[in-house]
Write a structure and sequence with these properties.
two-stranded antiparallel ribbon; 7 helices; 8 strands
Length: about 260
């Protein structure tokens, strides 16, 4: 009886104990020319630039890299309080990299149960809202992660809906969920993974929200809820370790 009660208490207070989550704060604090070098970004010899400089607000006062790192840290603290082991891509905003292939490799080496890459978009000035991106099988190094990644992406969308965020009105048909085969961080992941674009930095009203600490806490709360619900409900299980054979694909869409 006592042992059962202790197990129940542990599950309630540390529901993510025994899990590993890779949290990837998008982009870099510094962006020298070396980030333009080509690196592997998918099967079939597909390559892309090491990274991009990322978006920024119209006044230049907030960069995507600084925003994503702050949200990532807030999320890290919440997940660790829930018992998860959190592996961070970066913990500072004054370095270069890692490149997109290494970002995927960090989650792979950690054998993460889930991986999440945090971004803010540089869309049209009139566009507002969030959207989530899941992988497609086309260039995926491990196609078996596509289905669990999509389930995770749907949970992210639901939790962001739940805090009252608008779905992006300028991309993915207003659905708030896109699937793409041109993002190296998704293509090279061997663990279930999604990207989230939490807002549009080029929209003046949304940029004001992105600057607020209270709003960043709301983002972190929603992301942590999505991760917790996905892992506790076992909506994502470690997929079979079957990698994709190289093949050729059509030209990719561009990512800001």
């Amino acid at each position: 009886m006592i042992a059962t009660a202790l197990v129940a208490l542990a599950a309630a207070t540390s529901p993510l104990a025994g899990t590993t989550v890779h949290v990837d704060a998008g982009h870099n604090g510094a962006n020298p020319a070396q980030i333009d070098r080509q690196v592997p970004a998918g099967t079939g010899g597909y390559r892309k630039a090491c990274d991009t400089s990322g978006a920024q607000t119209n006044d230049g006062r907030l960069t995507e890299a600084r925003f994503t790192l702050d949200v990532a840290r807030r999320l890290q603290r919440r997940l660790e309080r829930l018992g998860a082991r959190v592996v961070m891509t970066r913990t500072a905003n004054d370095g270069v990299g890692p490149c997109v292939d290494e970002r995927a490799a960090i989650g792979n080496r950690a054998r993460a149960d889930l991986a999440l890459s945090i971004h803010a978009d540089g869309g049209p000035p009139g566009g507002r809202g969030f959207h989530v991106i899941a992988p497609l099988a086309g260039r995926a190094a491990r196609p078996t992660i596509v289905a669990p990644s999509l389930r995770f992406a749907r949970q992210l969308r639901a939790r962001l809906d739940g805090i009252g965020l608008r779905r992006a009105n300028y991309i993915a048909g207003g659905d708030g969920l896109d699937q793409r085969s041109d993002l190296g961080g998704l293509n090279l992941s061997r663990v279930p993974k999604a990207f989230v674009e939490l807002g549009n930095m080029r929209n003046a009203a949304e940029a004001r929200l992105l600057r607020r600490g209270a709003q960043r806490d709301r983002y972190a709360i929603a992301l942590a809820r999505a991760i917790r619900r996905t892992l506790v409900r076992r909506e994502v299980r470690r997929p079979p370790e079957r990698d994709q054979a190289p093949q050729e694909f059509a030209a990719p869409r561009l990512h800001s």
